[in-house]
Design brief:
By secondary structure, this protein is an alpha+beta fold. Residues 141-145 have low confidence and may be disordered. It has a single domain, classed as Gcn5-related N-acetyltransferase (GNAT) (Aminopeptidase, 3-Layer(aba) Sandwich), CATH 3.40.630. It has three helices and six strands; from the N terminus they run βαββββαβα. Strands 1, 2, 3, 4, 5 and 6 form a six-stranded mixed β-sheet that branches. It binds coenzyme A (COA). Coenzyme A binds at residues 21, 72-74, 79-85, 103, 105, 108-109, 112.
Length: 145
Amino acid sequence: MITYRHSSQDITPDQLRGFFEGWPNPPTPETHLRLLEGSDEVVIAIDEDTGAVVGFITAITDRVLSAYIPFLEVLPEYRGRGIGSELVRRMLDRLDGLYMVDLLCDKQLIAFYERFGMRGATGAMLRNYKYQAGPRGSDRGGATG
Ligand SMILES: CC(C)(COP(=O)(O)OP(=O)(O)OC[C@H]1O[C@@H](n2cnc3c(N)ncnc32)[C@H](O)[C@@H]1OP(=O)(O)O)[C@@H](O)C(=O)NCCC(=O)NCCS
């Protein structure tokens, strides 16, 4: 059975295996956990049979007008059974009342997000690939030093 949590409390790095599919330099599970802890909103899907996290979505918000959704991912073997949709629905519920909710995605995924009332838009982005695994590629608490 898949259950959903709205907090990263009690999640351990061991539960966070297999994410960031296709990233050449993925964050470690420890860095992934920090990312969840540092987000303003999270929804986490857990396979109660194994205890593993099988999907997650995060949001950063000013809680006044805007929110941004940087991450949505479901483990490959759990895709196509509605988990991604449930994560988006739950996150949009949590962000309800805000003027703008934005995310960046590949063109072919726009139709997926349109199911939830979102629409395609143009955007711009910056990627510092040397920090893809985390600040300065480490598990330290910040990009200092
Ligand atoms: C996108 C993603 C989260 C969807 O998760 P999921 O649990 O499979 O989603 P659901 O089962 O709720 O819905 C799947 C639907 O989305 C569509 N979809 C998923 N990925 C898609 C893609 N890359 N392009 C087009 N459609 C896609 C499927 O065709 C499916 O449609 P259907 O319901 O008509 O069969 C998952 O494919 C994933 O983790 N992908 C890799 C990471 C990613 O691209 N994240 C989004 C970043 S913006």
